[in-house]
Amino acid sequence: MSKKHNHRNIYLQYIALLSLFFVLGCSNTKYLPEGELLYTGGSVTIKDSIMKKKDRKALENELEGLLRPKPNKQFLGLRPKLLIYNLAGEPKKDKGTRYWLRNKVGEPPVLFSQVDLDYNASVLRNFTENRGYFKTRVSADSTVRNKRVTAEYIVTPRKQYIIKSVTFPDDSLKMSKIIARSHKRSLLKVGNPYDLDVIKAERERIDARLKEKGYFYFNPDYILAKVDSSKGDHEVRIRLVIKDDTPVKALTAYKIDKIFVYPNYSLTNDSAVYRKRNITQYKDFTIIDTADTFKPRIYDRTIYFKRGDVYNRKDHNLTLNRFVNLGTFSFVKNEFKPSDSIPNALDSYYYLTLLPKKFIRVEVIGKTNSASYTGTELNLNWNNRNFLRGAELFTASVFGGADFQLGGVNKGKNIYKLGAEVSLTWPRFITPFHIEGNSEYVPRTKATLRYEYQKRTQLYALNSFNTSFGYMWKENIRKEHQLNVVDVTYVSPNHVTPEYLADIDEDPALGKVIEKQLIFGPTYNYTYTNTMQKRKKHTIYFNGELDLAGNLTGLFTGADYPNNVKTIFDVPFSQYVKIRSDFRHYLKLGKESELASRLIVGAGFAYGNSNTLPASKQFVVGGTNSIRAFRARTLGPGSYVIPPPTNNNYTPDQSADLKLEFNTEYRAKLFSIVRGAIFLDAGNIWLLHADPNKPGAEISKDFMKEIAVGAGAGLRFDLSFLILRTDLAIPLRNPALPDGQRWVIDDINFGSSSWRKDNLILNIAIGYPF
User: Fold this and answer.
1) Rounded distance between C-alpha atoms, residue 115 and residue 69, angstroms
2) Which of 427, 429, 293 lies closest to 352, judged by CA?
3) Cα separation of 311 and 319, whole Å?
4) 390 to each of 318, 387, 434, 562, how far by Cα in Å?
5) Is the CB of residue 770 less than 8 Å from the CB of residue 625?
6) Residues 512-571 pLDDT 10s
7) Which residue, 141, 727, 748, 770, is most buried by CB atoms nearer than 10 A?
8) Distance between CA atoms of 351 and 582, rounded to whole angstroms?
9) β-strands 460-474, 479-494: how paired?
10) In this protein, which residues make up the domain named Bacterial surface antigen (D15) (predicted)?
């Protein structure tokens, strides 16, 4: 049978399947109760000859979003959740598959009897009038077809009113002068359309401004916006005034008097009697602590208020956020009470409930990758949240794991690892000079010591030691920094087998893996993201890394490979510069769909005491979170062709000095917890200098001809506590093939078992790839 005939059969099967779904979708109305109609949605049409078409469409979309109830959800013109609800039928008990399908996966029909046309019309009228379209008329009607009903709303607005002038309070109150001075920041602009929401936002802005000037008891309701539309042609004059019945205390600015801290506050016993010996006076703070839990200086670093300061909301919120971010409290409560000693002052009380000081966390991880390795990992962590009585976090961990390959060329060459790590994190900068942080996020200093033993059976073992000392801080919720001033890694091989030594004779590049390595130098990492802003259509994520190893040491010692290689404890130290950037863009296409894209660019340059990057610092591609149509670490470098493995050989990891990778995927919710994706991946790695043992691996001006391309589709199961991901990918372009034959689209043959075995790559992972 010809390939063309096969494609025709597949096409006919697809049409038949689509027709079946269409027929089933049409049958939804036969399950309706007697006399009921299925509500399929509402539309809003604005009749206005003055409004621009773009503005009219935008307003129509806003108004349609206000209609209630919402119709049953659609997918490709069908209502699959309603179909599942109907096909499941009425369950006989509150459990089982039928109950789950009907009530968890399915969705009951939205009936026209649930729709109140008059109520929706009033909602639309109020909304448009609040936008300045005064005296709007709204009419509502419905259309019935085959037991399905749509609602149509006709909105006829008058000409929109424009702001002619804005006047701020001009009385003798001090706060009125503060408000007047902030008029340049006003949200009410002359010439803009009248909008009630903007007026509300302006009152909130003024309230926030006054909160920064000590007006603790003020609130937006004390501001009245008087709107005069009697003069002019569709114009309004807005006058903001302080209400006459505003309480005196709301018109008064307050200062901070006494500050009380309860670090051992109990939610179940807030009336505990404290003796004098439980009370400590430290600077401006009165600390009531029965257990002497913390060193008093921690409060000086965390509480922004000092006695005599004018109250302001910024310092109020910063203090609460910093207490929360210390990581030692499960509950943080703050109260302000009028001072009983001086007028127009507040006493501040901080009630802090402790988390358990010591705890153990056990993590069991199951994993698999596209190189056919399946394994597990166990992590046991002991933690102390207040190790030195300054909210320091001490962690001691032991971990172990194993990766097995039950088939393929690496069968029997399993990977085992065992190790331990200790770390201590201080909630402040530890530096020779004082650095004052002003962020709501607590800066941290972290010291780490780690050892790991890794055994690759039948090949080699590696002992790896690492120690680091550095800083982590956030400017705000979007910007984060990590600087390791000291980062030292020492790797020593062990138990290298004759088999692996024989492989090195055939491919000398494999010898780099088992060389002793000494890497030291600073590293810096910067992250920017605004992906937490869910309402934005475009959001981004950027991560940049800079890794400098042995630079000053190589400069001062005059290191020069291979003529003058310098060693420390008989081990040559690495000298290189490495940079990497990861940029991601997320385009929101709908409520449950988006287009996610990622671009990774990386480069490493070894010089001085080294001629190549250490194996652990080189770039790799392929695998579950990279180019998914190629197995992990088997792609590249460049157009290099990996020799076919022999019975005594295995597929080595491919790595290089340069990396370029691009990924994009469309994500959409299908139903319930199931989300789907279609994706395209492209990229490769290259060596900076030619390697006679790897022809084609060096970067050249024709590097774009060596870009690998893969595509596929996947399902993601959102279980709330984790996302299980399955991606099925196929290669579209393989740079290891001869130039001119690298596009393999014409060779795709789903009917061939050998083709599927070599080209269909199933990736199973936890979480999204990016």
Assistant:
1) 6
2) 293
3) 12
4) 19, 7, 17, 50
5) yes
6) 888 899 999 999 999 999 999 988 999 999 999 999 999 999 999 999 998 999 999 899
7) 727
8) 42
9) antiparallel
10) 572-740
Q: What is the DSSP letter of 292?
A: -
**Nearest CA to 630 among 695, 510, 711?**
711
* Paired residues of 671 in beta bridges: 674
- Is residue 270 over pLDDT 80? no
Q: Which of 43, 44, 40 shows the shortest CA–CA distance to 72?
A: 40
Sheet with 223-228: strands ordered across = 162-167, 235-242, 223-228
Residue 222 has φ and ψ, to the nearest 5°, of -80, 0
Taking 3-state DSSP, the helix, strand and coil percentages for the chain, each rounded to the nearest 5, stand at 20, 40, 40
Retrieve residue 445's tokens.
Answer: 């200093």
What's the half-sphere exposure (Cβ side, CA atoms, 13 Å) at 202? 26
What 3-state class would DSSP assign to 692?
Answer: coil
Opening angle at CA 369, ends 365 and 374, nearest 5: 55
**Quick check: 500 and 513 in contact, CB under 8 A?**
no
**Secondary structure of 231-297 as H, E, C letters:** CCCCEEEEEEEECCCCCHHHHCCCEEEEEEEECCCECCECCCCCCHHHEEEECCEEEECCCCCCCCH
**Cβ contacts of 712 within 8 Å, gap of 6 or more:** 628, 629, 678, 679, 727, 728, 729, 730, 761
DSSP string across 481-545: EEEEEEEEEEEEEE---HHHHHHHHH-GGGGGGGS-EEEE--EEEEEEE-TT-TT-SEEEEEEEE
Place of tokens 């959102």: 718
pLDDT of residue 205: 96
Give the residue with greater pLDDT, 712 vs 721. 712
442-459 pLDDT, tens digit each: 999 999 999 999 998 888
The continuous run of DSSP H or E covering 64 comes out as: helix 53-64
440-to-316, 321, 426, 455, 525 alpha-carbon distances in Å: 10, 6, 16, 44, 20
Q: What is the identity of the amino acid at 154? A: I
Please count the CA atoms within 13 angstroms of the CA of 330 that sit on its side-chain side: 9
Rounded Cα–Cα distance for residues 428 and 689 (Å): 44
Burial class (CB in 10 A: 0-12, 13-18, 19+), 243: exposed
Is there a contact between 744 and 711 (Cβ–Cβ < 8 Å)?
no
Parallel/antiparallel/unpaired status of strands 255-262 and 279-282: unpaired
Strand pairing class (285-288; 255-262): parallel
What pTM value is reported for the model? 0.79
Whole-angstrom distance, CA of residue 742 vs CA of residue 560: 40
- The mean per-residue pLDDT over the stretch 19-38 comes to 70
Q: Please give the DSSP secondary-structure letter assigned to residue 185.
A: G
CA angle 505, 511, 512 (to 5 degrees): 155
Cβ–Cβ < 8 Å for 125, 136: yes
- Euclidean distance between CA atoms 27 and 82, whole angstroms: 10
Structure tokens at 750: 């789903």
Whether residue 623 contacts residue 584, with contact meaning beta carbons closer than 8 Å, is answered with no
Distance CA 129, CA 161 (A): 10
With 0-12 / 13-18 / 19 or more C-beta atoms within 10 angstroms meaning exposed / middle / buried, residue 729 is buried
Closest-CA residue to 398 (of 450, 359, 447):
450
Q: What tokens does 365 get?
A: 């991880």
Burial 598-634 (b: 16+ CB within 10 A, else e): bbbebbbebebbbebbbbebbbbbbbbbbbbbbbbbb
Q: Return the closest-CA partner of residue 509 out of 626, 700, 657.
A: 657
Tokens of 442: 């607590």
Beta bridge partners of 449: 422, 467
Q: Give yes or no for a contact between 636 and 653, defined as CB atoms under 8 angstroms apart.
A: no
Strongest mean pLDDT among 28-42, 127-141, 355-369: 127-141
Residue keyed to tokens 């005034």: 241
Contacts of 433 (CB under 8 A, 6+ apart): none
